[in-house]
Amino acid sequence: MDSLLQRMKKGPVSLRVHDVIIKGNTKTKDYIIEAEAEELKSVGSMQELVEASHLVNLKLKALEVFDSVKITLDSGPPELPGTANVIIEVVEAANPLSGQIGAYTKAEARSSTVEGSLKYKNLLGYGDLWDGSLAYGYDHSAEVSAGVYLPRFKGFLSPFTARAYLQSQDWLKFSSYKERSLGLSLGLFSTRHHDLAYNLAWRTLSDPSQMSSRSVRRQLGHNLLSSLKYTFKFNRRDSSMRPMRGFAFASTTQIGGLVPDSRSLRFLRQDFDLRYAVPLGFYRAALNFGISGGFVFPWGNGFLSRPSYLPERLFLGGNISPLTTFGGPTTLWGFKTRGLGPTEPRRQLNDESADPSGVDFVGGDLAVTALADLSFDIPIRWFREKGIHGHAFACAGNVSKLTENAYRDFSIKKFAESLRTSVGVGLVIPTSLFRMELNYCYILKKSDEDRAKSGVWITFSGN
Q: Which of 32, 89, 284, 438 is the most buried (most CB within 10 A)?
């Protein structure tokens, strides 16, 4: 062993894997483990074998069906010098059933939920995970769902997921409608950078208040959603919570209307997000830039004269950090949930208790946001040890309507002149569960109907 260690320090030690021996799996199919250990057979040196064994160990533990995984490296047959056997010993989960319950805060919806779930591991021996979950929000939102995750099933080269759900979401405070969906989602293909999913759902929009604006009332009722969504994403930043260097890009394309039904929603949506982080070399300071955008259109005859589907439109605003949200335009510092963009007056009722000044935020077909964030260490040792740091930021964004022939009045100049902007400074407190920001935001520009304010904001973002 000492001789081998000395040789490894001097340079690569040529070695190839002769056999991978699997032990301890009484229920899990051999090919499930072999698929995760495939990279062991392509190594060319002892150094590569040690590194690959560590990665395989992590991948097998990530399946969540083994209590322990042990990988041993042994010499190959005497007649085949320069070879090794890899012995993988697994201990399958003694208790395949697990569950959890907790209370969570969803900052983007300014609501709290109570959630519970049950999970059953490896029922069929394919490394499958079956789960059921229930969530109820204090804002009257609720979701019941059940699904299965298959890491390697038969001829599939990537994980396969299926999930049935019944979901209810209350947007009455912002846009005067409630959304209810009964559907099935399928994860068809998933790798490190690519993801392809299909969603089939029966959606119902309703307005119990009977105060919704004209454009919302026109879309109340039942619709069928049949959509295919493709996401390409790569992230080469050193951290998603406090990026110091690197860049990231995400693009999501969704097309709806894949079934020949008159109630099928036909639309095309495209989102993108680009981020870049640059270290500055003092006080662990870094400058983050980001720009994101998206658009949505109905398709078919006369698509520009028809409205886009309300739940698929683009909305901006929310009590979350734009720095940590990644994937498309979502929020701006200092603006409340669905707090900016096109609005319409709500319906007036002969009711003295009704709010005569209410408006509905109806979203838009085109949205763009940009941000700049300067993070830096605070020159106090206790803060540095806890990871607490300061930041200064600026952001801008806008939402515009293009459908129903609104594109005729659209111009880049008008869109740029109506950009909403804000700046501020704050303190970032990271924890193992979330990132909390205590910020002072100053609104530079907003419209009269926007829901935004200058002052102190506390935001939470999940890790």
A: 32
Burial class of 305 by CB neighbour count within 10 A (0 to 12, 13 to 18, 19+): exposed
CB 336 within 8 A of CB 319: yes
Question: Which residue is it, tokens 């200058």?
Answer: 454
In this prediction, residue 154 carries a pLDDT of: 63
In the chain, DSSP finds a helix count (H) and a strand count (E) of 7, 21
Return the pLDDT at 104.
62
d(CA 101, CA 425): 36
Q: What are the structural domains, with CATH classification, of the chain?
A: 2-92 (3.10.20.310), 225-462 (2.40.160.50)
Q: Are 439 and 390 in contact (CB under 8 A)?
A: no
Q: Taking the mean position of all CA atoms in its chain, how far away is CA 389?
A: 25
Q: Is the pLDDT of residue 111 over 90?
A: no
Find the distance separating the first CA and the last CA of the chain, reported in whole Å. Answer: 42
Please give the backbone phi and psi of residue 269, each rounded to the nearest 5 degrees, phi first. -130, 140
Beta strand 83-92 with 16-23 is parallel
